[in-house]
Design brief:
Elements: H1 5-13, E1 20-22, E2 30-31, E3 37-47, H2 58-75, E4 79-89, H3 94-110, E5 114-122, E6 126-136, E7 151-155, H4 160-165, H5 167-170, H6 177-185, H7 191-196, E8 203-206, H8 211-222, E9 224-229, H9 237-240, H10 246-254, E10 261-265, H11 270-280, E11 284-292, E12 300-303, E13 312-313, E14 316-317
Parallel strand pairs: 4-5, 9-12
Antiparallel strand pairs: 1-2, 3-6, 4-6, 7-10, 7-11, 8-10, 9-11, 13-14
Bound molecules: adenosine-5'-diphosphate (ADP) and magnesium ion.
């Protein structure tokens, strides 16, 4: 029996809302803004054939569609509260929907996020999620707060997701692929870290386009430059095994989809950041510093082990293309 749209929404996307006045089922949802807080709003779309392939695991897709939005909320230092989900589906496949909803809702529950509404229509597979979070007034972490002299930090390890995408071409040992795939397909948004960094970090961004590109966004918005020591960039044990390959070095430096946080903070915050790292059991690594911006100089300079800049060319890294 084909699922009607109404039945589909009821079965797979209707859950009691814990922090909303009114959730799924009316023309729109109602949430209550708390006094003294600001709302932080983000949206991210995943398109089949562009962000994932048609046959992708639906449970991981549900997770990822929400995770990439939670990552943006985390990078703002906000607490995620409400989500909406707009879905275009080629057909109403109950097994696909059950798995998708499981992946989405497991992550939503973990972070106390209510799915309060959305839209469902027939069409080429397309998943658009919006998340609204809360942050105490004036305390959000923004891209424009970095200052020359700040330390530059990164959470977790970088490059695994990008390495997963080229694992086949590079002939990576099959036992090494699952941990890389997990970073690509089921990223962990750094929500706890974002909240902990309020009042400590001066700027933050999540790494979705690669370290140099995303750190470059902070530099542009803050009108500073960044100097990063390549040898300090944290890599997983798996990626380290392949650091002799140019593609692995490029993944570490410029690969996207890791959803770690890059942030800057004054030197006086080093001890506080070390404490956050221990409390969250999350590796936080100081990889460089912010400097004054010089006209004509690139926003981000990466130094090799001998202190020489690694030159950038054609959107890639010259040393890494050989
Ligand atoms: P409308 O015609 O007013 O847009 P819909 O029939 O599209 O209403 O949706 C009915 C209710 O179901 C609304 O509350 C809407 O927010 C919710 N909804 C629709 N699709 C989804 C979905 N994929 N996930 C969560 N809620 C949804
Ligand atoms: Mg609708």
């Amino acid at each position: 029996m084909p699922l009607t749209e109404f039945e589909l929404i009821r079965r797979f996307f209707t859950y009691p809302a814990r922090h909303a006045v009114l959730g799924v089922g009316d023309d729109a949802a109602i949430v209550r803004a708390r006094s003294g807080f600001e709302l932080v709003i983000t949206t991210d779309m995943l398109v089949a054939g562009r962000h994932f392939h048609q046959g992708a695991d639906p449970e991981q897709l549900g997770h990822k569609a929400l995770a990439v939005n939670l990552s943006d909320i985390a990078a703002m230092g906000a607490t995620p509260r409400w989500a909406t989900l707009a879905l275009a589906l080629p057909r109403a496949d109950a097994r696909w929907l059950a798995a998708f909803s499981r992946g989405f809702m497991r992550l939503a529950r973990r972070y106390g996020v209510d799915l309060v509404g959305g839209d469902t229509t027939r069409g080429p597979l397309n998943i658009c999620v919006q998340v609204v979070g809360e942050v105490p007034r004036g305390r959000a972490l923004r891209r424009d707060g970095a200052r020359a002299g700040d330390d530059v930090w990164v959470s977790g390890t970088l490059g695994d997701a990008a390495l997963a995408l080229v694992a086949g071409r590079l002939g990576l040992a099959s036992r090494n692929r699952p941990p890389l795939r997990l970073k690509l397909d089921a990223p962990a948004p750094r929500v706890g870290l974002g909240v902990a960094l309020r009042g400590i970090a001066r700027s933050a961004i999540d790494v979705s386009d690669g370290l140099t590109a995303d750190l470059g966004h902070i530099c542009e918005r803050s009108n500073v430059a960044a100097v990063v020591d390549f040898a300090r960039i944290p890599a997983s044990a798996t990626l380290k095994q392949y650091l002799h390959r140019p593609a692995a070095r490029l993944a570490l430096l410029a690969g996207g989809d890791d959803y770690e946080l890059v942030f800057s903070a004054g030197r006086a915050r080093r001890e506080a950041i070390a404490r956050i790292s221990r409390r969250l059991r999350l590796r936080l690594t100081r990889i460089g510093r912010m400097t004054r911006r010089r006209r004509g100089a690139p926003p981000v300079t990466v130094l090799d082990a001998t202190g020489r800049p690694i030159t950038v060319a054609h959107g890639g890294y010259e040393h890494f293309s050989t």
